[in-house]
What we know:
This protein is mainly alpha-helical. The protein is built from 9 helices and 5 strands; from the N terminus they run αααββαβαααββαα. The strands form 2 sheets. Strands 3-5-4 form a 3-stranded antiparallel sheet. Strands 1-2 form a two-stranded antiparallel ribbon. A hairpin with a 7-residue loop joins strand 4 (about 170) and strand 5. The longest helix is centred in the middle third of the chain and has 32 residues, at about 75-105.
Amino acid sequence: MNDSLETVLVGTGALIEQLLRGEFICRVTNEDGWRALKNSSTRERVEQYLNQINRTITSAGEGEVFFCGYLQLGENERKVISSQFKDICGALIPLVEWLVLVQEASGQDAPLSEGAPIRLTELQTRIEDTPAFSEQLTKLSHYRLFGSTSNNVDGQIKLVFKRLVELGYLTKPNAEKQIYIATGKLDYLYEVIRFIDETEGLSLEAQAETATQRELI
């Protein structure tokens, strides 16, 4: 290993480990790492190291979110990607229904995006005050992705948010406050949804939104 690659390992070792673990690097999840990857010279050095092990830096959200992909696809790599894609597809419906619920209950015009705060107490109050929202939460919380067995809004919503933090779609900066921040992994999710919509015509976003609107009527 040459000196430049050794420098990469010493200076950005933790960042490389995050990428190899499949984590998504954005301003919310790791601002220092995000800034490092936004720097072309640093990114090139990290890329040089990753290329040695058949990995490459991939981006989403118009270059604001970084994650690790394969440089070349052989049979084993295709199996891994296929498995990962199946996992994402299996989680799409509950995730989209959650996104629609948050958008509707918060009265927002646009979908949740990276850096947007969600105040859990306020959201929970709105859901508890609106039967249609409560029914939607109950439905999505019981999906396998979340696996709630609770019959009340408090138990359901806290489990859903805990799971979304574990999955990397949300972060909770202060353990003492019920405020969550959306991460850049949502931008990656939107790109996956658009890809599926365009290639298979599933219109997942439209289906989920229509279903929610129908319950509100």
